[in-house]
Amino acid sequence: MKKSRVLSVALGAAFLAAGMVLLSSPARGKIMGGVCGDCHTMHNSQNGEPVATDLSGNPLATPFSRLLVSSCLGCHSSLSSETIYGLPVTNTPVVNNLADPAHPLAGGNFYYVGLDDSNGHNVLPSNPDDLLGTDPPGGAFPSGGSYTEQLRCAGTRGCHGLNGGHGEAPVDDQLMAMDGAHHDRGAPLDGSSVGRSYRYLNGISGKEAPDWEYDQSVFSHNEYAGANGYAITNTISYFCAECHGTYHSSADVGLASPWFRHPTDTVLPAGPTEYSIYNSYSLLAPVARPDPFDVLDTTKVTPGEDTVMCLSCHRSHGSPYYKAMRWDYRSPDLATVLSGCGVCHTWKN
Fold first, then answer.
1. Average pLDDT over residues 31-46
2. Is the pLDDT of residue 316 over 90?
């Protein structure tokens, strides 16, 4: 088994110090419901002391770009196991906990990557991928080429904001890649701008659960865009393919076994098949929709219309399982291994 580890003492101390600063105020991550001072500083001075801090909690003489007081990780991390803070005002989603997350959100949590770097995406500076290095498996970063720096949250070497994946000029600075996005939040999330893209994934459409699936309810969950094909550019699987392109291809995915890879952006077959029985939505193996804004009953799945996507099997940030799987595909217990597969492949149960 791949080596396991916890986050370094240095990083833990860093978040402890940063958390004392960040979590003592209402919140610093979401513009809706908060006040300007939650995220910005006018003069970087309060009671004669700087307001902006680095991840170690050290005061900064100069704030971050756009007069921000913290970074992506500074706002979306927590010392505790809770994954939303600032309730009920700012409701900031937490994707990186230092304690085992009590309620992991839809994308999972980077906490698990600290335990084993094969459990998800390596965005924490102290947690590079020992096996894969800086090149994403199955492809390259959207702007092409190989990089010596590891994956980050946003920008040229990240997922969120302007990363070059839809033909725009990539912005290397993470915060500038997200420039104005939190102020441009509005419905529908049709991909028309960074702020109006699903989870700030530029060009991607979708519908977000108000609590990011905190309550794990089939009555209120994310709705992902999907299509029967590989050329539609607003789907969540297309976004994954911006870095993992080899896994998003019709090559070696045919009509008969053996296949080389599991299909994505493929309609769940209808008719008298094992897949037609999957008609009650499962959070363990969710599906994407041809139109995420036109779903009348979120608890239902429609074979022949809804599609298999990358996130049917994986979490986007990280999970407790190998390769950010939604269930323990490596378990020695066959029932556990099949628990997720059997949602679609019902005859295999």
1. 78
2. yes
